[in-house]
From TrEMBL:
The keyword NADP applies. The active site is at Y54. This is Glyoxal reductase. It comes from Pontibacillus halophilus JSM 076056 = DSM 19796. One of its GO terms (molecular function) is oxidoreductase activity, acting on the CH-OH group of donors, NAD or NADP as acceptor. The keyword Oxidoreductase applies. The lineage of its organism: Bacteria, Bacillati, Bacillota, Bacilli, Bacillales.
Length: 280
């Protein structure tokens, strides 16, 4: 089977989610942002990942409205921000996001961060939205295993997705293992680490061996770990490059080499050290 940007992983409820999508963190909120998303759709991307915190849902909505791609072929993700969490607050936040996106239903809704004392009530709201058919899949973001354990104590529905920071210096082996045990699909944000590993000797050597870019080698490594990626790029040629990772395969030894680059160094905050008070 020929894999491409429409190729999907199957979430535990049977919904297909593309293996590679476009992340739009820090993408402009105006016409320029809409153009970036439109370009990605023209390249072949079918999955777009935004969040209310990004303040660009309207731009994404403009691109979705302008595209000729049928709605059923698109996979749109957004997230509820920390100061919107709680049961009623989340339901209201969802309505705001849907209005900005201009959609009748959402493909994936995520809790952006595990706000202490809030995320369980927030999850109950996501379960309602899912049961009401307003969203096809629900999940979380930046949840450590202990957050998931706490959530699963009260959840009627197991999250379909956990979106976490992952790249060669943070391979998240323990979270990936936990999620695999609970049929939770891992999605990597900042999957190419904002380019900081492109000069790494191992990545450079593998890129030359396969006639691929460092970004493609890293994205292929994540794909072979069963992880969905949402790399961000505003440039058409980079968008094409990031999606072109299905025509080569790393050996197990090469996978192990990239695994060994792990140092635990993060780009974002550790979920247990995040300053939640400042975002409420």
């Amino acid at each position: 089977m020929n894999m491409n940007l429409s190729s999907t992983a199957t979430l535990h409820n049977g919904v297909g989610m593309p293996w590679v999508g476009l992340g739009v963190y820090k993408v402009d909120s105006g016409a320029e942002g809409a153009e970036i998303v439109q370009t990605a759709l023209n390249v072949g991307y079918r999955s777009i990942d935004t969040a209310s915190f990004y303040d660009n849902e309207e731009s994404v909505g403009q691109a979705l409205k302008a595209t000729n791609v049928p709605r059923e072929e698109l996979f749109v993700t957004t997230k509820v921000w920390n100061n919107e969490q709680g049961y009623e607050e989340t339901l209201a936040a969802f309505d705001r996001s849907m209005e900005k996106l201009g959609l009748d239903y959402l493909d994936l809704y995520l809790i952006h961060w595990p706000v202490p004392g809030k995320f369980k009530d927030t999850w109950k709201a996501l379960e309602k939205l899912y049961k009401d058919g307003r969203v096809k899949a629900i999940g979380v973001s930046n949840f450590e295993p202990h957050h998931l354990e706490e959530l699963l104590e009260v959840a009627e529905i197991t999250p379909m997705v956990n979106q976490i920071e992952m790249h060669p210096q943070l391979n998240q082996k323990h979270i990936r293992y936990y999620c695999a045990q609970h049929t939770i699909q891992v999605v990597a944000w900042s999957p190419i680490g904002r380019g900081r590993f492109f000069e790494n000797e191992t990545i450079q050597r593998l890129a030359k061996a396969y006639d691929k870019s460092p970004a493609q080698v890293i994205l292929r490594w994540e794909y072979q770990h069963g992880v969905i990626t949402i790399p961000k790029s505003a440039k058409e040629h980079r968008q094409k490059e990031n999606g072109d990772v299905f025509d080569f395969s790393l050996t197990q030894e090469e996978m192990n080499e990239i695994d060994s680059l792990h140092t635990g160094e993060r780009i974002g905050a550790h979920p247990d050290e995040f300053d939640y008070e400042s975002t409420m």
